[in-house]
Design brief:
Distance between the termini of chain A: 26 Å
Order of helices and strands of chain A: HEHHEEH
Structural class of chain A: alpha+beta
Number of strands of chain A: 3
Strand content of chain B: 15-25%
Largest interface: A-B, 32 and 31 residues
Oligomer: heterodimer
Number of strands of chain B: 22
Structural class of chain B: alpha+beta
Radius of gyration of chain A: 15 Å
Largest sheet of chain A: 3 strands, antiparallel
Strand order of the largest sheet of chain B: 3-4-9-6-8-7
Shape of chain B: globular
Low-confidence stretches of chain B: 59-66, 479-483
């Protein structure tokens, strides 16, 4: 049985699931996905990014300016296949949990 | 503004900063600009993330099946194995920590029993005490203020004689109001408490035993409840036992027996036998303590009680009554006179053991640095084999927790040993420490546990952090050599140790000097060859005539024992109590602001001979000075100041129509502490008490001077006294020196404790210095080999190593002198005729420390100079 991933890891993996993003982009996406309930600080963000890189769950993509922000070059990150698998297995774990909770009428 | 969080980046490890710093600032900047995050949240986030980076926790592992319990057991086994493999280190660390933890635990117990919780009661912070004794009618008045107080109790301490199986002993007793135990919130350990229904005049006599009395004298048997006890010659029924831990309302009081306050006339003679003590507002003898009602402050209660007091006691003179301000019982319990001294003394002790803990920590940190350096190869290999930094860090913290736990347990043993040593001593003011509630209870065990937990985590995380940051490649490339010289940090630690040791050593040297001077100080009396014995006739309900008959008969018999050169009764023992009287001196104009207040006692003719008080002028009392003859007095030299420029002999002293003629002047005596200003004293003849404020029935003390062996005389005096009247309650048949011992107690305790800790600190510092010098010479073996091969003289090599040990020690001495000068101020009150900044003491201690440092670094220096150059070069 796999150990559950930490919330910060799941959020970042999820944010990168559809497209490559830079640090601030991840922050924004996490806030959007959770309807503002989770606000990841920059320290937590890069601490987690460092570990995800080390675990090869994500990798560096390229470095370019974001047209929506200023003209500074920003580093983009991309989900690897290992990261995708980890996210999938975490999701199925939560899904199983949810199903069990429904069966016991803990959750609607 | 854009760069503002830049400095926070420096919280992160350098590698992290280099790799992610720019991006982190970018994101922070954008987020700040768009208002996504508050400053507080940002700072908290950065600090938290930085801490996690340093500790290397929360890594994304590819987890397999894990079991926390199994992990813990594996770590425990591993830690134990490692500790056993390095017995020298383990033993040194455990001994150091155990001593420090033990000493701190014991002194914490003392702080707890004196400053924090001197009175064992429920919610003691809501108990308030009247600053002085009240009359009984006033006390009753106070009890009516139920709007302010949940309850008001009255208390009087006294001594009673208790006869069990034919032997009579004096016991301390408390006469308490019926509500006392409910006000204090103390539950009985057996039977029932004293109740308001017991607190009635001429009621049946009932008593409660203290827990210790019940345990020690009655074996802790429940069958004692309902049994009669012979007390002051009356039969008293035991109804209960006071709960464990309660020892009265004043420090060191520890009553053995509790009786209703209204039982006093039935059990006492003389003054307290009169029922009038419950009616007169002029007779002031009740100590009052109250429990504040919820929401009432001490100030509010003081103001209201002050009004009650004024209404009940309208001022008789123009002088305004002193304002009645309630004190917290915790403060009052230390005693008005010595409370400050006790507080200062206990805090001084706490400072001393705190210093010892710091020194121990410095020396332990030094040991750990050496150890972590020597373990780098091991850590490198483990990392290379796939262990995560987090695993290694956790295992190291575990190892030091095991160490700290063992040290903590041994520390408890050290603490109980130290409590036993402490109990031999007295606090300033003469309270014996063994009368305090100083058992190894929950508070002390908690203190020991938290101290060991803190030191364990603290010392565990340092090497853990270093180990977790070990770089695998460099470590393995260097063939597992333990290199990285950490001499800088180690030298700082040695300097700190030396500095702190210097503080302790100068402290003990100052105390030692003042003890030596104190012992040699003129006390005004000569204690060698003198025995004192005390009698308390009132505790056997003897009246003055019967007491006096006993005194006469006892003195005659003792006087005829072989070797006895003088014997005399006195109303008190100097240094062990005081009575003060306000008098007038004929021809001396005293002011209302500074009236003539003299210490006084009633003494028999041979008293000055027996106590060894030198007659300076005039004559001693004689057998002719009786109640029938002219009233006379003898004054101390200090009291002669009331006859400025005149001869006090023939002068008159007294008040009202009670005047006496001064017939002699004697040497000053020490009354309460060494180094006090000379006390003005007046002595009255023992036989001229009829008009005085003291009655022979209250008790007196026999002074016996022997030319022979004191211990032999003790036995013969005791048996003579008991043979005169087996019913007479006698106590404290001891050498006079025992009473005087209290005067030098603080100095003695200071010498013992500071001396012990000072020597301990010195030993630790010497080991630390040796360690650094040896370590340096080891690291530089190759360099030394080259130097020697190139023709360097052994002398220079020795100097090189010597410097590594002596230099930090010298720095430590300089810092330590500054620190000691500052710290010595706190000991000033307990030093006798020694300046806290005595230059000779400081110079001597500094020199001694420097010598120790030189010797400790000389050994490795000599070894270094003998290095075989060829061997050293080949080996590396």
């Amino acid at each position: 049985m796999r150990k559950p991933l930490t919330p910060a890891i799941v959020h970042i993996l999820l944010a990168l699931a559809d497209e490559d993003r830079h640090g601030y982009g991840i922050m924004q996406e996490v806030a959007r996905l959770t309807e503002g309930r989770v606000r990841m600080g920059p320290g937590t963000l890069y601490g987690t990014i460092k570990r995800l890189l080390a675990a090869r769950f994500i990798e560096e993509a390229d470095e370019r300016p974001d047209p929506e922000l200023d003209d500074e070059r920003r580093r983009y990150y991309r989900l690897t296949s290992a990261g995708r698998r980890a996210l999938e297995s975490e999701t199925s774990r939560v899904a199983a949990l949810l199903a069990a909770a429904r069966a016991k009428k803990v959750y609607p | 503004v854009k760069r503002r969080p830049a400095f926070l980046l420096y919280l992160f490890p350098r590698a992290f900063r280099h790799r992610y710093g720019r991006e982190l600032l970018q994101v922070t900047h954008t987020a700040r600009q768009r208002g996504d995050i508050t400053t507080l949240a940002l700072v908290a986030d950065l600090c938290g993330a930085a801490a996690r980076e340093w500790l290397g926790v929360f890594s994304v592992s590819h987890p397999r099946g894990r079991n926390l319990m199994q992990d813990a057991i594996r770590d425990l086994r591993h830690a134990t194995r490692l500790l056993i493999r390095t017995p020298g280190f383990t033993l040194a660390a455990i001994v150091t920590l155990a001593l420090a933890i033990g000493a701190n635990t014991a002194i914490f117990g003392l702080v707890d029993a004196t400053l924090l919780r001197p009175v064992h009661a429920r919610q003691p912070e809501r108990l308030v005490a009247w600053p002085w004794s009240s009359s009984y009618p006033d006390y009753v008045e106070y009890t009516k203020r139920t709007d302010l107080f949940e309850g008001v109790l009255g208390w009087r301490s006294d001594r009673v004689s208790v006869s069990v199986d034919g032997t009579t002993d004096l016991r301390s007793a408390a006469f308490v109001s019926g509500n006392a135990f409910s006000v204090l919130g103390v539950k009985p350990a057996a039977g029932r408490p004293l109740l308001p229904s017991d607190d009635v005049l001429n009621g049946p006599l009932v008593a409660m035993l203290s827990y210790d009395e019940w345990r020690n004298r009655f074996g802790g048997a429940d069958s004692i409840i309902g049994r009669p006890l012979e007390l002051n010659g009356r039969s008293v029924t035991i109804v209960g036992v006071v709960g464990e831990g309660h020892r009265g309302i004043a420090l060191g009081e520890s009553p053995s027996i509790y009786l209703p306050i209204t039982a006093i006339p039935q059990l006492q003679t003389g003054f307290f036998a009169q029922p009038r003590i419950y009616q007169s507002r002029n007779l002031v003898w009740v100590n009052v303590v109250a429990r504040l009602r919820q929401g009432v402050t001490r100030e509010q209660a003081s103001a209201a009680v002050d009004v009650v007091y004024r209404m009940a006691n309208p001022p008789t003179t123009d002088e305004p009554l002193e304002r009645l301000a309630l004190a917290s019982l915790t403060t009052q319990a230390l005693g008005k006179q010595h409370g400050d001294s006790i507080e200062r003394f206990v805090l001084l002790l706490m400072g001393v053991v705190g210093l010892t803990l710091l020194i121990g920590c410095a020396s332990l940190a030094n040991l750990l640095l050496a150890r972590s350096a020597s373990r780098r190869p091991e850590v490198g290999v483990r990392l290379a084999m796939g262990a995560t930094p987090a695993q290694i860090a956790r295992q190291m913290i575990f190892e030091h927790l095991v160490l700290a736990a063992i040290a903590g347990l041994s520390g408890i043993a050290v603490a109980s040993l130290m409590l036993r040593v402490l109990s031999l001593y007295q606090l300033p003011g003469g309270v014996s420490i063994d009368r305090l509630d100083l058992s190894l209870g929950l508070p002390m065990l908690t203190a020991a546990a938290s101290l060991s937990a803190i030191t364990g985590v603290l010392f565990g995380s340092l090497p853990a952090w270093r180990a977790a940051r070990t770089d695998v490649l460099t470590t393995l490339r260097d063939h597992g050599r333990a290199d990285t010289p950490q001499t800088g940090l180690r030298s700082v630690l040695v300097a700190a140790q030396v500095a702190l040791s210097l503080v302790l050593l100068t402290g003990s040297a100052l105390f030692l000097q003042s003890l030596l001077r104190a012992v040699a100080a003129p006390l005004g009396f000569d204690v060698s060859g003198v025995i004192t014995a005390s009698a308390a006739p009132s505790a056997a309900r003897y009246d003055a005539a019967r007491a006096r008959a006993f005194y006469d008969e006892a003195k005659q018999r003792v006087r005829h024992l072989p070797g006895i050169t003088a014997a005399a009764w006195s109303s008190l023992i100097p240094s062990n109590g005081a009575m003060l009287a306000q008098v007038d001196v004929e021809g001396y104009q005293a002011t209302a602001a500074s009236p003539i207040t003299l210490h006084f006692s009633y003494v028999e003719p041979e008293y000055f001979l027996a106590a060894g008080i030198r007659l300076v002028n005039g004559r001693p009392f004689s057998a002719a000075d009786t109640s029938g003859s002219a009233p006379v007095a003898i004054i101390s030299r200090a009291a002669a100041r009331y006859w400025p420029g005149r001869n006090p002999l023939g002068g008159r002293i007294g008040s009202g129509d009670n005047w006496r003629t001064v017939v002699g002047v004697v040497e000053n005596t020490t009354v309460s502490r060494l180094g006090e200003d000379a006390v003005a004293y007046v002595y009255f003849p023992f036989d001229q008490v009829s008009r005085g404020p003291w009655s022979a029935a209250e008790g007196a003390h026999l002074f016996v001077r022997t030319s022979g062996d004191v211990s032999a005389a003790l036995a013969s005096v005791a048996s003579q006294l008991r043979s005169v009247d087996p019913q007479m309650p006698l106590h404290d048949i001891v050498p006079f020196a025992t009473h005087v011992r209290g005067l030098v107690m603080p100095q003695q305790m200071g010498v013992t404790l500071l001396g012990a800790f000072g020597v301990l600190a010195l030993g630790l510092a010497a080991i630390g210095i040796y360690g650094v010098a040896a370590y340096v010479s080891l690291l530089r073996t190759r360099e030394i080999g080259i130097r020697l091969a190139l023709g360097a003289e052994a002398r220079h090599v020795r100097q090189l190593v010597l410097r590594q040990g002596v230099l930090p020690a010298a720095l430590g001495i300089v810092a330590g002198v500054g620190l000691a000068l500052w710290a010595a101020r706190f000991a000033r009150a307990f030093l006798y005729e020694v300046s806290p900044s005595d230059p000779v003491t400081f110079a001597a201690v500094a020199t001694a420390l420097l010598l120790v440092a030189a010797v400790a670094s000389w050994l490795p220096a000599r070894r270094a100079a003998r290095v075989d150059p060829a061997g050293a070069l080949r080996a590396q």
